[in-house]
Design a protein that fits this description.
Blueprint lengths: L1 H21 L11 H4 L2 H8 L4 H20 L12
Length: 83
């Protein structure tokens, strides 16, 4: 477990720094719950691609909703770990 955490720590630190620099200009889209793609489930999606069209539709819908909120001047929800 420690080695997996170390592999991701640099990427997470970079992502946090980029999110901090972007500030309010950053809108995170997370149309697919992480539990659906966590661990080995992520690789299963490449073996059985039948869910991809649903993911694409969910991503499009999530992006449209985010753009509509921005156009209406509604602030985007902040990520849970935002500083």
């Amino acid at each position: 477990q420690a080695s997996a955490q170390l592999r991701w720590s640099g990427m997470l630190a970079l992502a946090r720094e980029q999110a901090r620099l972007a500030g309010d200009r950053l809108v995170l889209l997370q149309p697919v719950p992480h539990a659906q793609v966590r661990g080995a489930r992520f690789y299963d999606l490449f073996l059985d691609r039948t869910r991809w069209p649903d993911f694409m539709r969910e991503g499009r819908q999530s992006a449209r909703q985010a753009l509509q909120r921005l156009a209406a001047g509604v602030p985007a929800p902040r990520p849970l770990n935002a500083a």
